[in-house]
Amino acid sequence: MKYLNQFLNLIGQFIEGKLSPIDFETEYLSLWRKARDDGSLSELNEVTEDALDKLFTAVDVYCPNEELRDEFDINEAQLLNVAKITFNKLNIAVATSRQ
Description:
- By secondary structure, this protein is mainly alpha-helical.
- It has one domain (4-97): Four Helix Bundle (Hemerythrin (Met), subunit A).
- It has 4 helices and no strands.
- The protein is globular.
- It starts with a helix and ends with a helix.
């Protein structure tokens, strides 16, 4: 998939604290939509697509304002956790595709 390295770089920056959750949210949604719209997401194996979709959902329900957060929303720590899981799955996918 032509965007896989961009996803890894973006998620890595967020995990390392180089991107705020709000900036990550904006950039991830933009990249995900770009990949979806040109058909690149449909080229992924099931594990990789599932990981990116789960992160998309997490980004979508992320709410930075605790006062506005309801039981369906997640906070920054939860978003970071999903990002780390996704990052690990994508790295495994890249490693196995090179074998």
